[in-house]
Write a structure and sequence with these properties.
By secondary structure, this protein is mainly α. The chain contains ten helices and three strands, in the order ααααααααβββαα. A three-stranded antiparallel β-sheet has the order 1-2-3, with no helix packed on it. The mean pLDDT is about 90.
Length: about 260
Amino acid sequence: MLGRREPVQKPRYDDLLREMMGFLHGRAYPKGHVFSKRELSRLTPHDIYRWMAMKVYGTDDPSPDDNPTKGRSSSLKYYKKAISYFMPYRRLQWNELTKMGNPTRSGEVNGLIEAVIKKEVRRLGKATIADRAFEKPEFEQAVTLLESFPDFNRKRRYPTMAKFQFHLIAGLDDTCHVLRDSLKPSIQFPFALVIRLRWCRDVHDERHAPEQIVLGAMDSRYCLLLALASFLEEKISFGNGRIEEFLFCEPDQTPENLNSNA
């Protein structure tokens, strides 16, 4: 029987689990330490509440007058998702009577998140540093600025990736994982290309990754066909572009490396 697919964020999930268990047990766990099912099944909602409260309040027992100035509710939601991944009964709601189920899916943990959200609405929490989408003039300015540099990455690779994301409404991780052989000429429309995005978070089988059409544009700041042609022509002239598995990666580069550099 095939196991569940391991998430891309699994290493980060491991770090957070070790941090939480270290907090609860008063010791540091080394990288690679594996917690037994028995240890994990002993966790209670209050254990997770205490650790999460410490992360955002700086105390594991905050009062109603305390403010979450150390972290955001979005971080708590991520911590909840990370810890939930390891829970033996992760699909079950926590049952207060039997003390069974997933302790991250409990009233105590959800209540903490709701309390932090309420503080944030009242501007009593940590200020947000969330990214926002580019406005049209900002996108155009960023592409124009990048293309003014002489080096290949900033002149060709990164602007092409930006136009790819814009054209296909893709994330950076999706773009970094685009397979080279998934880019093909359209049989139906000879003036266009087709491509499959196989790395999106909602892709679980072939039906979720249909071919999408890539069209040109009258504005060079948005034309993905022109950008891809320039990018691939210059890349191939360096002796690359024929053997790489991923479209935007170098031969010795992983999508994760490209993601962190882009």
